[in-house]
Amino acid sequence: MFSLVKPLLFSMSAEAAHDLTIDGLSALGRLGLVSLAGKRRVDDPYTCMGLNFPNRVGLAAGLDKNGVAIDAFGAMGFGSVEVGTVTPRPQPGNPKPRLFRLEEHGAIINRMGFNNAGVDALVERLAARKFDGVVGVNIGKNFDTPVEEAASDYLHCLDKVYAFSDYVTVNLSSPNTPGLRELQFGAKLDELLGQLRERQLQLQSQHQRYVPIAVKLAPDMEDDDLRQVADQIVASELDAVIATNTTLDRSAVNGHPLAGEAGGLSGSPLTKKAAHCCQVLSDQLAGKIPLIGVGGINSGEVAAERIEAGADLVQIYSSFIYQGPELIKDAAKAIKKLRS
Ligand SMILES: Cc1cc2nc3c(=O)[nH]c(=O)nc-3n(C[C@H](O)[C@H](O)[C@H](O)COP(=O)(O)O)c2cc1C
After folding, report:
1. What's its EC (predicted)?
2. Domain region containing 171
């Protein structure tokens, strides 16, 4: 199926192809036809953050921002789907064009800017899902909320999605929301994580259910900063680290006509950098809390390498756009093989 539709999708602008795909997958879900999207899921159960994942390959945040195609992505074989980033209020994101394919590099540059329909719309979609895998909700702040008030946006989203998510990801690492990455450091990070932990425990007693919180980091940090942040997340008693988001570094695509586009770079040029971050974080975390590896996972071999670099689970976005559902199967099989 994917090999039939790929030429059509790649003949369109990246964002038009994205919208058409999401609309199509969403329609399959509404019509109860998600098996048409599908591949059988590789069965490789794994427990992480106290949750039972059917396999260790997940869809990374940003593809299904509004949670409209969770069932279809599940039918393609993902063991988990992370929806969002969602913000308290709907927002349009940055002006178009804001999404670019660098096909020769198997890469994407995006400066979408958290375009999303807002947390209330997402909650409705979450409540309607049928997918039996794990669903994470990635939360962020509205672009016009000052960074000093970011905590109130994160707490608002956490309150709203708590009852409907298996885990929640706090996105501190998008390069497309001014000031967001500042929250990854020092006292600002401690303050935010402390408030999130406190609210998580309140919500736990209110809902009689514990929903783990993961923190998603950027790849553009020095190793010492990564180690420091890892220690802060552990000290805050949050539940997992996700590494990494897109990179601002263009060295791997130098000379490409689109290399100068503003935004975050993802896909194959990110493989090495994200793998390095994963290794540094896993050494520092030393198994105290789980680590989810994402960034440039473009083959079964690279997926297995990320697990060997210390990740408990992996997530994929850009290479899934280029390779389709076959990559999910390749990645899940390669990871399963590590245990046999
Ligand atoms: C178009 C696009 C939009 C994205 N939007 C989000 C987002 O809203 N929230 C987020 O945490 N990550 C977002 N990401 C980052 C991905 O989740 C992932 O961390 C990153 O792309 C690296 O993985 P990859 O190389 O497999 O794409 C986005 C990535 C792309 C390409």
Report:
1. 1.3.5.2
2. 2-338
